[in-house]
Amino acid sequence: MSLEENNNQVVDENGVEGSEVEKKVSDDAKWYVVHTYSSYENKVKANLEKIVENRGMQDYIVDVVVPMEEVIEDKGGKRRVTFKKIFPGYVLVKMIMSDESWYVVRNTRGVTGFVGPSAKPVPLSEEEVKAMRLEGVETFVDFNVGDNVRVIDGPLENFVGTIEEVHSDRRKARVLISMFGRETPVELEYGQIQIIL
Questions:
Q1: Distance between CA 71 and CA 109 in Å, rounded?
Q2: Taking the model in full, what pTM does it have?
Q3: Residues of each domain in the chain carrying CATH 2.30.30.30
Q4: Would you say the C-alpha torsion 55, 59, 61, 67 has a positive or negative sign?
């Protein structure tokens, strides 16, 4: 796919312009699995994203992911949320396979190679992508300041309160709960509260 600039608008050989070209390019991108040195997954992700930005290859290497899962640990009576790598030693890259994009990924510091035949890496199937929840599945919880909620888990179970602050990046909310005739602010995880309709 050759792209040319025409009066500051990107046009491909079929006359498709701008965002349509970008959409077409990202639709052609497939997910590939890259093997890394142990504990280098996040470094590989950061290095690869920096190289892509410096070389202007955003159209060819679309996304880099280190799959993580949220784990709740109980230590000493305190609950702590941590993130654990689902596939240690692997990074997932959404890209359009070309000689240049293959070279960039393969020669990123910390990468040992693509999973699959070394000459021509094999992309993940659509079923594998859906099973890994890489695309098309987005969990969305809509908590807003002022919502009335019931605590459904933990020591304050069945208490009712009002959301004072929402921290969507940490998946937590500060809730004002009425205890002993006083409003007490408590920070709770999304999984511990439920909106009262």
A1: 29
A2: 0.57
A3: 148-195
A4: positive
